[in-house]
Amino acid sequence: MDPTAEVGHENGLSGESGAAKMQERLQKRHQARIEEVERRKEAKENQSVAEEKGEYFSSTFATEQACVEELLSSCSGADRAAVTQRLEEATARTVQLQKFLNDSMLFLTQYKMRQAQAALQSLQTSIAEIREKALPKKKFAFGARSKGPGNVPAPVSDAAPPDAAPPADSGEVDGADASEQCFFSNMDDEFLTKTSEEIQKRDVLLSHLSNCKVRLFGSPSTLHLKHIDSCEILCGPVSTSVFVDSCRNSTLAFACQQLRTHNTTDTQVYLHVTSRAIVEDCHRVSVAPFSWSYPTLDEDFTASGLDRDRNNWSQVDDFNWLAAGIPSPNWSILPEADRKTNWGP
Amino acid sequence: MGFLTILKKMKQKEREMRLLMLGLDNAGKTTILKKFNGEDVSTISPTLGFNIKTLEHKGFKLNIWDVGGQKSLRSYWKNYFESTDGLVWVVDSADRLRLQDCRQELSALLLEERLAGATLLVFANKQDLPGSLSKEAIREALALDEIKSHHWCIIGCSAVTGENLLTGVDWLLDDIAARIFTAD
């Protein structure tokens, strides 16, 4: 209080009433200042959300982590269906946890972030381990992936014609085990067929064929046609894509998810395509709806997973013709009168 | 407050990566992108231009550019090179006949100055197909061992089943992060 009195004196105010007034005024100002500080503090607190606190993060993260761990530990000994369900939940929760971590990254310290990241990593690893152990389905995928010579079903190699062995294409890098994929190549004037068992879920390649008739009854995984001249090639539903390159003067029929056609001329395609067909560097390619049929076509359609009700055969994109509104001169729709209806044997 | 916001934004930006996905047409680039993002892969059409996806993974924000691989589109690839942190080269492991093509396109890319700092991840895709080449065969066919200019890694994967996609992307992120976020 001394300084107040002093100030009072310095200001030249004298007498009891002057000093009292001054004190009152200072008191008020002091009060106002404290209130202001209080107000600011409050405002600041309002701005920092509870969720953006390190402790909140740690506790939430820990609870969630414990949950997932419990889920995982309950997997051992449970039956397959239960394990699948639990694993699914654990995976979903882990993903959510990752998201939570990502969102919280801005206010976390490096150390905390690393710790959380490491915890997540170990969760993911144990999920993967349990999945591997409990659901050996994945093992099958692995088996199909590693392709040793023992992997090829014997009938296929038997059925492969002896003159198919030397691949004529210079672009081919690995010709040694090409027989695994190469079903027909370097043939002239033949009638070739494959049964469903031979091509189911496999990748089929036909190359360097001329004047051949090919019938593929079944649902391969993918189909490649290359260097085809004056052939008629009919194939069942292909579950993914068909790739056609350097084909001329031929008739093709297949169902597929995607079709890519390159360097192809004077060719008719009877097509069922669930997404899109494209042409590039092609001339005089005509399209018509897929009309070939054989006894097990329905089953093969089901096996391929293709949607029978969705056929975009008439919507072909031309990569050499990007002008909108003007139809590409490189492909056309085959007039109904010219379409083939009888496919023979 | 203003300054803090700027700092936050900068920090956010720091954790962003730009990945460019290229490869011949029919390699499975769009399928990889969609599968990685958890989308349906059964309705994908051949890419007429490009797709961009921004997604978060392992605390990083990834901008993934998937550019069509059709021959007539390849001359546009160069438009996407700028500030690429990681290059994902996708190979159709079952397409033996175009491996030579594939090798040439890749080696041309690696000479590109604007991609000089980028990490290279090669996806030997379609390993689910019984006739696909192993990643070792692809590695040989593309002469990857001769690459000295870039950090690289080859991973066998299947975009259809999703197998190994995470492994590949995780490797790529780790490599890029080690290079550009050393300050952390």
Structure overview:
The complex is a heterodimer of chains A (345) and B (184). By secondary structure, chain A is of the alpha/beta class. Chain A has two domains: 42-134, Methane Monooxygenase Hydroxylase, Chain G, domain 1 (Up-down Bundle), CATH 1.20.58; 178-338, Pectate Lyase C-like. Helices cover 40% and strands 24% of the residues of chain A. Chain A has helices at 2-10, 16-47, 54-73, 80-104, 110-134, 137-145, 154-159, 196-199, 297-304; strands at residues 182-188, 191-194, 203-210, 213-216, 222-229, 232-237, 241-248, 251-256, 258-262, 265-273, 277-280, 283-289, 316-318, 331-333. In chain A, the strands form two sheets. Chain A has a seven-stranded parallel β-sheet with strand order 1-3-5-7-9-11-13, with no helix packed on it. The longest helix of chain A has 32 residues, at 16-47. The model of chain A is unreliable at 1-10 and 138-179 (pLDDT under 50). Chain B has 184 residues and is an alpha/beta fold. Chain B has one domain (16-182): Rossmann fold, CATH 3.40.50.300. Helix content of chain B is 33%, strand content 23%. Chain B has helices at residues 2-14, 29-36, 71-74, 99-110, 135-141, 165-180, and strands at 16-22, 50-57, 60-67, 86-92, 119-125, 152-156. In chain B, strands 2-3-1-4-5-6 form a six-stranded mixed β-sheet, with helices on both faces. In chain B, strand 4 (86-92), helix 4 (99-110) and strand 5 form a beta-alpha-beta unit. The longest helix of chain B is centred in the C-terminal third of the chain and has 16 residues, at 165-180. Chain B is globular. Classes of the chains: A alpha/beta (345), B alpha/beta (184). Chains A and B meet through helix 4, helix 5, helix 6, strand 3 and strand 5 of A and helix 1, helix 3 and helix 4 of B.
